[in-house]
Amino acid sequence: MNKTDIQAMPAGLAGAGAGGTARPKVTTFATELGRIAAIGLFFAVCLFLFRSDPFILNMMAYTFLFAALSTSWNIIGGFGGQFSLGHGVFFAIGAYTTANLYFHWQVSPWLSLIPGMILASIVAVAVSWPTFRLKGPFFAIATLALNEVAFVLATYFDSVTGGPRGMLLPFKAGLVNMVFTSRLPYAIIMVGFLLISLVVAAYVLRGRLGYYLQAVHLDEDAARAAGIDVLKVKLTGMAISAALTGIGGALFAMYLRFVDPPTVLNIQDIGVKFLLIALIGGVGTLYGPLLGALLIIPLESYLRATLGGTIPGINLLILGGLLVLFALFMRRGIFGALQGAWERYRGARS
Amino acid sequence: MSGFVLSVENLTRRFGGLVAVNDVSFNLRKGDLLSIIGPNGAGKTTMFNLVTGQYPPSAGRVIFNGADISGLRPHARAKLGLGRTFQISKTLTTLTTLENAMVGAFLKRNNLSEAADYAMHVLDMVGLGARAGIKAGTLTLSERRRLEIARALALDCSVLLLDEVMAGLNQKEVESVIDLVRKLNGEGLTIMVIEHNLKVVRAFQSRVIVLDFGRLIADGSPDHVLSDPHVVEAYLGRQHA
Amino acid sequence: MAAFLNIVIVGLLLGGIYGLVSMGLNLIFGVVRIVNFAQGELVMLGMYGAYLSWFLLGLDPYVSALVVVPCLFVLGVIIQRFVLQPLQNEPFMQIFATFGLLILFQNAVLAITRGTGYSVHSELSRIVISVGDINVNLSRLIVLATVIVVAIGANWFLHSTMYGKAVRAVTQDRRSARLMGINVELAFMLTFGVGAALAGLAGVLLAPIYTLSPQIGGNFILAAFAVVVLGGLGSVWGAFFGGFIIGLIEAFAGYYLSPELKHAIWFLVFIAVLIVRPGGLFGIAGAEEVGLREQD
Predict the structure, then answer these.
(1) Which of A172, A300, B122, C103 could share a disulfide with B150, CB 3.0–4.6 Å?
(2) What family is this protein classified in (chain C) (predicted)?
(3) Do the domain assignments include residue A105?
(4) Any domain includes A222
């Protein structure tokens, strides 16, 4: 208990608390750092075990990438309750920024992560400023439309994007170019990105901004009465979320070494997947998106590999079905269900 | 300096043709406990919303600690020290009781454990210490009202506006909330309450103002105000007057 | 001048299509307060229904409406009863669920058809009416006539029949409507059914005009959102005139700017209207917030 803080209160109010009940534990950022380190260690062991299996490494790279992207979406979408369907735009900005800098000026992708992040944040704030006046489904519609517009613009302005033909990035292997002959370095980079996203999300959630985002999500009037500048909080959350998404786009571009509108701006394959993974894992929880990605991405690549050739769209067909089923029967996702089971177990024991 | 914490000057708010609050003026000194009464639709909650900034006034001013705050948005007014509760409790149901209070405590504290400690302290003050760890969605109505008071207190507010905190509570709960309000007031907090229950207003034994059709029709002690024929007429209709 | 007139005609015909597609979406939003992201897919299902009726039963697409529209009505009732009714107070989950249906329907059709494009022909759709330099395909005129009939019919229904009044009562205040003895759940199911049936009707009428593809719903849904946001959510005449406004904007933008940029133009209009007048040109102010308000 911080004594000096209590004494700083208005004189009359100090000491009014009767005795002072023991305060329940509040999860701190430091605790989360420990957990994230454990997760990192576990994935490092996985990578080591499968270091020479390109199929598994490829799947792990995608899983970690989408886990990170969904964790980033969750900052504004889950904590803040702003259901953006337009995060594909920030993803595409990261991808095209890095691709252009690499293609035309041979800038190292490591360096172009920074302008990609900044640009994604600026665009996110610029388009969110007006659209944050809208609530719930209307915000979702506006962001869906934003993604469509980005698709049209990316196809139209072919001097920047290569238009419908896309941009094929030259293969020049090397650490500086973020181009490798083995899949292992890519998988390691994706784990790194995942850990960074988790650390940022944990820092947000376990600090003032996280509490404010949740308050804004649950009740804007109550948030205002608690002195919260609602628009500022939403914009801050959006900027952080978009910056991380921009990094993801850049890494994706360097992994595929190819960028075109259908790859980075497909609403079902990119924009919606972030929130789908979050929903299935547990929207608004710190580790839910990671859990969701661990389930969804391997499932999807399995379906694509086994049935994709004979039945087109089967992977998305199943994802759509899961989306409806989880919305109906498991609103808190896998993480929420596990949490509930754990609470019941503890309740039964005490 | 006038010495008033809060002054409402000729405050008016129109909604289309309806004048919900009509040229209302009054002042509060530090440590006052002011009750606002009036029939349904008299403009009490609208007046609160004008003071806390939910709506801009059509005319008139709100002065807080000597500064005109009429143009400020609600969160800025909260930062200056105006705490409030809502007629229908706005509980952040999926957070714990402690976390609800922490949302308020973060206003003046950036550090997580400081905010949590302070939130715990205000929860103890309103008698919710034992409920700190549970989800706020499982609290009873009277506990939710206390929680809203705690969240406002956690802002370190200097003026607290309570909008019908007794509504829907049973006799025992009403008495305990009366005690809480008196205790907070006794410790120097300036409080303004909207109240329907005239017994509560009598129990406070402090200044009362009466609104009717948006106008301030009486201002004084409970005994004085409740025997005023205009007030009786507003409440009970003309034939009883 | 002829070019200008031609663009106006193209815009009006397109507006008829958008208006028709928007009617069901708007009805569902106005009454059930649900933004149905899968509405475009219901139109798509209507189009494939017309194809299936022609393929299996040899029905002319315009006759197949008699089969397809009731089927879509039943589908709508099922969706409302089993998917959306359990999510009545969960606005976020409604977005997830209707978006899930969008992905589900689209990819189910893709999986079944293996991505083959179909087209449906009717004897009527071959007829072209010419006035001076302007040629109009009869099938597009039928859409235009239908949207006018549907708008007048919907308006009459909502304002002049007992059932319509009950629906409007539900729209304004669910709780009171319930107290007045109106079965709100039933009203929602029937409304969603009618909304889906209107999408089916639009699908049947559009089948002879477009090449069928599983993704075609996406072409309509954004236009329909633009229309209802512009016209005002929940307003029948809003959807009617909103359709023409969007159609004309698209026709002019396509001619004077670039056909590829039409989506961008919609979006600008859409965002501008959302910001300046969130309730739309004909809608009730604050409707954008009502969508989220808890009601029970």
Answers:
(1) B122
(2) Belongs to the binding-protein-dependent transport system permease family. LivHM subfamily.
(3) yes
(4) yes
